[in-house]
Amino acid sequence: MNMGTMMNRGEPNDLAAFWMPFTDNRGFKANPRMFVAADGMHYTAAAGHKVLDATGGLWCVNAGHNRAPIVEAVRKAAGELDFAPTFQLAHPRAFETASRLAMLMPEGLDRIFFTNSGSESVDTALKIALAYQRSIGQGSRTRLIGRERGYHGVGFGGISVGGIVGNRRQFGTLLTGVDHLRHTHDPARNAYSRGQPAHGADLAEDLERLVALHGAETIAAVIVEPVAGSTGVLVPPQGYLQRLRQICDAHGILLIFDEVITAFGRVGKATAAERFGVTPDLITMAKGLTNAAVPMGAVAARREVHDAIVDNAAPGIELFHGYTYSGHPLACAAALATFDLYAAEDLFERAIALEDYWADAVHSLKGAPHVIDCRSIGLIGGIELEPRPAAPTKRAMEVFHKAFDAGLLVRVTGDIIALSPPLILEKTHIDEIFGKLSDLLRTVS
């Protein structure tokens, strides 16, 4: 069989060349599982069977796969303007996309900087925070505060403020002048919480401890995920985010919400900031921004942050930062079509409408074999499994592989099954997801 025939069938001619990200390459290439098509709530596997997508791809396909309005918008844009630089030049669609995106943000966060991924959005937000502090005469504020178990992408800034050890240990000392809050996971007090756990607001006081340790005059910004996703669905305790906001205000520290996962309906609102009633100074985004059809990220900045940097700069370039593909024409077309689709189908409201049914299904796994915790908010679910003795992560990975073979895509992180389906799902899909998971948990040791 020649290469062209193989490629037409969606079969790769060689597995060796692609060094896969966040993957057991040796294990995958010994037993590959691949997708060749997608539509709506389902992928089609290379073997031919349908796979129900319970993860929105990688937390990113919020409006379902292969949606015609987005496909056509990208197709049309590709035939009109394949690329336009946004260094000292621009194209109209970039400004339209920024304006439309600003309308979805909390009031006052209406200055938009475009990136190409969540990782780039995080590093951009950190740099904006540092530039802001310098622009207002607070140049001693260079320290960045993250949180244990936080995931903020894979740039050096993101892994420095991040708190997942496996993402950090290979790469040396990372950025200096970084510290971390404790994480909020407290299974002893909060196991099987629906929505926000009752206990843990006091953990925000860690920031006061770091202020006392380092001095407020050294701290530029704090970055947290409102709902920590990649570490296994950690929902913020009641009052926790509000207290972080209060402490930041008291000490002149910028608050950054990493909403790469939570923005665009995942928790039933355009942002988790809106859902939880806490407005940060900067919001990072990606994933659902374009429904993952074209890579794109963004940072929404409070107008005062933007104006301080721009108005206090010398004539010329105000922020020496950017990307070749910032505001790419095809990405902008995908984003605009995605915004229209979210609105036309009331997808954010749909997430709220299904939240209770979803939560019931997540928590129906309490008492299933190996399950030690379930947690949920919006259309996000986390099912934590007891690790196998001396073999952590293996049980959840076995579920992952068996689920794929049974026609269900889940995400696993450590020994936690994480779920984040497209917002177009029906109750019948929820029933299928948790029916299959319940059956699969009985088949693993």
Please, could you describe this protein's structure?
- The two termini are 41 Å apart.
- This protein has 445 residues and is of the alpha/beta class.
- Helix 4 (68-80) packs antiparallel against helix 13, helix 5 (92-104) runs parallel beside helix 13 and helix 14 packs parallel to helix 16 (427-441).
- The strands form 3 sheets. It has a 7-stranded mixed β-sheet, with helices on both faces. A 4-stranded mixed β-sheet has the order 1-2-3-13.
- It is built from 16 helices and 15 strands.
- The radius of gyration is 22 Å and the shape is globular.
- It folds into 2 domains: 33-63 and 346-441, Aspartate Aminotransferase, domain 1 (Alpha-Beta Complex), CATH 3.90.1150.10; 71-344, Type I PLP-dependent aspartate aminotransferase-like (Major domain) (Aspartate Aminotransferase, domain 2, 3-Layer(aba) Sandwich).
- Helix content is 37%, strand content 16%.
- Strand 5, helix 7 and strand 6 (178-181) form a beta-alpha-beta unit.
- Its cofactor is pyridoxal 5'-phosphate.
Strand-helix topology:
Layout: H1 3-8, H2 25-30, E1 35-39, E2 42-45, E3 50-53, H3 56-59, H4 68-80, H5 92-104, E4 111-115, H6 118-135, E5 143-147, H7 156-161, E6 178-181, H8 187-190, H9 206-214, E7 219-224, H10 240-251, E8 254-258, H11 272-276, E9 282-285, E10 297-301, H12 303-311, H13 329-344, H14 347-363, E11 371-377, E12 380-385, H15 394-405, E13 408-409, E14 411-413, E15 416-419, H16 427-441
Parallel strand pairs: 3-13, 5-6, 5-7, 7-8, 8-9
Antiparallel strand pairs: 1-2, 2-3, 4-10, 9-10, 11-12, 12-15, 14-15
GO molecular function: adenosylmethionine-8-amino-7-oxononanoate transaminase activity; pyridoxal phosphate binding
Family: Belongs to the class-III pyridoxal-phosphate-dependent aminotransferase family.
Keywords: Aminotransferase, Pyridoxal phosphate, Pyruvate, Transferase
